[in-house]
Design brief:
single chain, mainly alpha, 57% helix, globular, Gluconate 2-dehydrogenase subunit 3
Length: 191
């Protein structure tokens, strides 16, 4: 199984669909693509880490920061996404900070966990409305928060902490058992 198949399987496991821009990124990784240095700026990495940790916070399992999801997002955006999609994400990060400043008079990274949740919940509602709009056209850009959520989930559940602590994990699988009883609250299996 290659990385693309594993990521698609994780998406299926999580019951989510992957956007066209993420799928095209997985199909077209180009390690020789020029780096977008704005993505590598420390301020960008800080806000990405906070967004990812708000989406997957530390609980009884490690959160997105422990899995270094922000680094995964930067690498994926730099190596696999088109310049237009990178710009959509960078502009989206500015919009997140603007929404934070407007509502709480502070940048996103300085907000409390509850305030971060409030900001991202409103942006996620905006993402849902954007995806359900009636005037959609072929080639419209993917909503920036869609890309950020997908990369956060993919980065987390393909990381060691995500695959071994948040999911059930068998390092050396045994025989195939097609019907294993499910108990409410059981973790999903890592792939």
């Amino acid at each position: 199984m290659n990385r693309r198949e594993a990521i698609r399987n994780v998406a299926l496991l999580l019951g989510t669909a992957i956007s066209a821009s993420t799928l095209s990124a997985l199909e077209g990784c180009n390690p020789k693509a020029p780096d977008n240095y704005a993505l590598q700026a420390s301020e960008t990495k800080k806000i990405l880490a906070e967004i990812a940790e708000t989406i997957i916070p530390e609980t009884t399992t490690p959160g997105a920061k422990a899995a270094k999801v922000d680094e995964f997002i930067v690498v994926m955006l730099n190596d696999c996404y088109k310049a237009e999609d990178q710009k959509v994400v960078l502009d989206g990060l500015k919009k997140i900070d603007e929404a934070s400043e407007k509502q709480f008079k502070k940048p996103f990274v300085d907000l409390s966990d509850e305030q971060k949740n409030t900001v991202l919940t409103a942006i996620d509602k905006e993402r849902v409305d954007y995806n359900k709009r009636e005037n959609k056209k072929e080639g419209d850009p993917t909503h920036y928060f869609q890309i950020l959520k997908e990369l956060t989930l993919t980065g987390y559940f393909t990381s060691e902490p995500g695959a071994t602590k948040a999911l059930r994990y068998v390092p050396v699988p045994g025989k195939f058992e097609g019907c294993i009883p499910y108990k409410k609250g059981d973790k999903a299996w890592a792939v």
